[in-house]
Design goal:
- The chain has 3 domains: about 200 residues, Rossmann fold; about 70 residues, SH3 type barrels (Roll), CATH 2.30.30; about 80 residues, Translation factors (Elongation Factor Tu (Ef-tu), domain 3, Beta Barrel).
- A hairpin with a 4-residue loop joins strand 10 and strand 11.
- It is an alpha/beta fold.
- The termini are far apart.
- It is built from 7 helices and 17 strands.
Length: about 375
């Protein structure tokens, strides 16, 4: 009898990764679960759920009858993800740590460790799909959107490369979330109703302003109107604000200039001047300062390893929760891409990622710099 293919599954204690392991076991793979501990600072407070997550993973592994290993990647996480996270906030940008966490921890440190365990491949509970594709005699692995568009996570995986995708399975990428929960319940997995994790990757949900202030010094400064350059408030640090932000500015009762068309509209962050430590705001969700038809992205990463075509119709997400927007890549040079949208995009934010798609295929993307 031929040897079963060994798959190490990253298990978080949630329903998605639990069902991923369940499906692989049912499909006849030699399944090993691996729980990653990636954060140790203030691990005793109410916001970290590591201990409970581990208890849940142990329970699921016991029900499935699979071996489980626990590994600590806290050092790698701090060096490869969290240090960059702090650097970006300090520079006034708004990073997305989940993206770097995926490329550096879940699909690099985890993948490398799984290979030392004799794994043929790894698997996770991400909502995405991998397709082996032959084009002009060249075989490549494509990253596809999940079947469940409301849960698709390909945006967070755009930095994965061919070597990583060739060793990766996404067992639930073809399923809808409701069906994943039903499968877990039918299999007797107590995590079938466990709520989805939120917050910073591996750190969890917590009062973000307080958390960030532990690591970066606050620099209070002025809040000014972008149109009239009038001081209307004080901010407690530019790192606490992002483009398009409405809540938490504490200037809601202040009116705009009398000649403003929407003097009673809500205020939104439009610009951060790091040199002057000034936060600029505008009134109205659709203020022209919040809309951009073009952006520039750097630190590009393409799934295929090849640059996409310029002047071709694609779609893009300039942030995770925005709908796919028709666009074209105007230029690719010096590690940068200039992207033009068919319709203006709201609150394009430096530090966030713009991810490019061709139909259901995620081509890659980069970090927004302008």
């Amino acid at each position: 009898m031929s040897r079963k293919e060994k798959v190490v599954v990253g298990m978080s204690g949630g329903v998605d990764s639990s069902v991923a392991a369940l499906l692989l076991k049912q499909q006849g793979y030699d399944v090993v679960g691996l729980f990653m501990k990636n954060w140790e600072d203030d691990d005793d407070d109410e916001y970290c759920s590591t201990r409970q997550d581990l208890v849940d993973v142990v329970s699921v592994a016991d029900v499935l009858g699979i071996d489980l290993e626990v590994v600590n990647f806290s050092k790698e996480y701090k060096e490869r993800v969290f240090a960059d996270f702090l650097h970006e906030y300090e520079a006034g940008r708004t990073p997305n740590p989940d993206i770097l966490c995926n490329s550096e921890i879940k699909f690099r440190a985890f993948l490398d460790h799984a290979m030392t365990l004799g794994a043929d491949r790894i698997a996770t509970g991400h909502y995405a799909q991998v397709r082996e594709w032959t084009n002009d005699g060249r075989t490549e692995f494509q990253l596809l959107k999940a079947e469940d568009g409301t849960k698709d996570q390909s945006y967070f995986l755009y930095r994965l490369n061919q070597a990583q995708l060739s060793k990766t399975l996404f067992p639930i990428g073809h399923l809808y979330k409701r069906d994943v929960r039903k499968m877990a319940e039918a299999a007797g997995l107590h995590v079938h109703a466990k709520k989805d994790s939120t917050g910073i990757c591996f750190i969890g949900e917590r009062p973000f302003r307080e958390f960030l202030s532990r690591y970066l010094p606050a620099r209070p400064g002025e809040i000014r109107t972008l149109d009239g350059d009038r001081v209307i408030g004080q901010h407690q640090g530019l790192m606490h604000h992002t483009i398009g932000q409405r809540k938490g500015l504490l200037i809601g009762g202040i009116k705009g200039n009398q000649d403003d068309a929407g003097e009673h509209d809500a205020w939104y962050v439009a610009h951060k001047d790091m040199a002057k430590n000034v936060l600029y705001v505008v009134q109205g969700h659709d203020h022209p300062a919040l809309l951009k038809e073009r952006l520039v992205a750097a630190d590009l990463s393409w799934v295929s390893g090849r640059d996409p075509r310029t002047h071709w119709v694609y779609t893009a997400k300039p942030r995770y929760r925005t709908p796919d927007a028709p666009c074209e890549i105007d230029a690719l040079a010096a590690g940068r891409a200039e992207i033009a949208f068919a319709q203006p995009q709201w609150a394009v934010t430096p530090g966030q990622s713009v991810v490019i798609y061709e139909s259901r295929v995620c081509l890659g993307g980069g970090i927004i710099v302008a």
